[in-house]
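ok so heres the complex, two chains, lmk if somethin looks off
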Amino acid sequence: MLEVGDIHISYGGIQALKGISFRVKAGQIVTLIGANGAGKSSILKTICGLVKAQKGSIRFEGREIKGLAPHWVTRCGITLAPEGRRVFANLSISENLTLGAYFRRDREGIEEDMEWIFFTFPRLKERLYQQAGTLSGGEQQMLALGRALMGRPRLLMLDEPSLGLSPRLVSEVFAVMRQIHERGTTILLVEQNANAALRLAHHAYVLETGRIVLEGSGEELLADPGVQEAYLGKITLM
Amino acid sequence: MDLSLFLQQLLNGISLGSLYALIAIGYTMVYGIIRLINFAHGDILMVSTYFAYFGISVYALPWWLSVVMAILLTALLGILIDLGAYRPVRHAPRISALITAIGVSFLLENLGLVVFGGRPKAFYRPDFLDKTYELGGVRVFSLSIWVPLVTALLLALVFLLLYRTRVGAAMRAVAKDMEMVQLMGIDVNRVISLTFAVGSALAAAGGIMWAMKYPQINPLMGIIPGLKAFVAAVIGGIGNIHGAVLGGLLLGITEILLVAFLPSLAGYRDAFAFILLILILLFRPTGLAGKDTIG
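and the predicted structre for the whole thing:
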């Protein structure tokens, strides 16, 4: 579905991505894990067109999307829910969701998605006309997910959806991701919480300083001693 | 002080303040979404009065048709200015965009002098705006009643657009987080174009009423209403639409009352507006209504 081939980007002379290649198959949950600054967010920003890659190719459903403006990438079927939720605090919940479906013309489909979101996040329905800024952090995360889904993406990219949430809310977010996937959406996930992400993912890539150093299924990486030590906080005894 | 005189002057103040408010909304909307003080706003207003002038006096079209066409043409002019002048520097430092705006302002003024000539032209005033009524001792000029009414109607339309339509929600969202709006599949440039169109159309409506009030126009006539409306926008809190309306009315009313009741200071009416600007910037830089967003 998504094939990223040898992308390079640099910010002000510093190379952030040094030849990244990976693929996301339709119907999968794929996760990128790695330390802060490894380039995970940069990859997502490059795919959605916010950051221009100097080199390489990004193909989505067989079509080259590198160089497209961000709003065109979204219209192609890829939606990024960026780090920090970034709901429109000055708009109502209803308006936030409506903007998510702004470019769509299929009225019935929009209704259907809205229903699903209300069913999955009943709190949002209760507060439909409240300003999004009045929601709690967890509710804002649900709104950010709902808003991204309103574009009915075939590939949903999530950047740190569990960041800053209480443990109970973290597991709720992971449960919701599973539901979104079961509904037929492919997910590309960037997560700090490597443990939970690897448990959820079909396939995973490990990033270090702008390079992919390891890949495998979620279970394989969970069992990998190097990954355990670096990202899962387990000490391997010699 | 005579009450009827006060009421009469109050009405004049509201009328002038409405014009400031209409023009100030254009400043504030553009600032709200792209953080640019569009210093050419007053000159866009000037061009709109010439559009109307050409319709009425040169092509002899009905005055209302000329006014509608002038407003539409001015909206288009606003879009073109954004496209040609501001979009290329959208991601440059803010000071570049500001200098560009000043450049566009000079361009319009001097182009106006070349194309339209520097001599003021008489502007048409429809008969129904040229009447004086006597209401319980208060003398009322019909234009002073119509201006606030038209303003109220236009403001209602702007608020409907902003708070009851999808594109209005998109405008308010762009003011908050432009990048995020792009990620929703929304073409931000189109939202910005529409903002320029709406702001310029309101400036045109304000400018044409301004021209009917005086009633003459010249290529430098946009400077003072432009600056005053800028002051009004800052008083209200730039970026805040309610604030622009509040600031416009406040500035118009105090200015007229100052002139009416302290005639010895009448020559300082413009200075008064700018002193107010300085005071606001010193003591309440976010304006009376605060909050730097069009939400």
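quick notes: The two ends of chain B are 41 Å apart (CA to CA). thats all i got rn
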